[in-house]
Amino acid sequence: MPRPMSFIRKEVFMQEIVLDIRGRIAAPRGMPQIVCGSSDTVLRCTFDSEWAAYPDKTAYLHVVRDGVPGCTEVPFSGSTCLLPALSGVHEVRIGISAGALRTAAPARIPCVPGITDLPAEEAPVRTDLFLQLTAEINRILSSRNRQEVKNG
Description:
By secondary structure, the protein is of the alpha+beta class. The protein has one domain (5-117): Immunoglobulin-like, CATH 2.60.40. 16% of the residues lie in helices and 40% in strands. It has one helix spanning 127-151; strands spanning 15-22, 25-28, 34-35, 41-47, 56-65, 68-77, 80-83, 91-98, 101-102, 107-112. A hairpin with a 2-residue loop joins strand 8 (91-98) and strand 9. The longest helix is centred in the C-terminal third of the chain and has 25 residues, at 127-151. The radius of gyration is 27 Å and the shape is rod-shaped.
């Protein structure tokens, strides 16, 4: 018998993105992607010794949405933080700061559209195409009706 969901730890479902911070350069491990709309993405950083004196850090998430650049700050302690849900973006650039330290080069993480990135409203019906199809259907039906009357 399967175990109820309440017994499964939430961490099992969370996506983890690992950034290696060396020489003030943030580099993603592997080829991670963020699914837009997902609030279950954990950022885990590994730091070189330069960062050891700073337990409190801030992750900076730089995005461009609808042509407008923006930045979200996510303060955290230690080496992990939960990333906020992103939407309508193609990539996020993540940098880290702590005290006077800052990453000189952010990590570039591609983002893929999620279900929340679908258009809020349906595309308008193309009336010209609708009218063409309706006219063709009417032509076919009237042609059949004429054939039935003629054969009739």
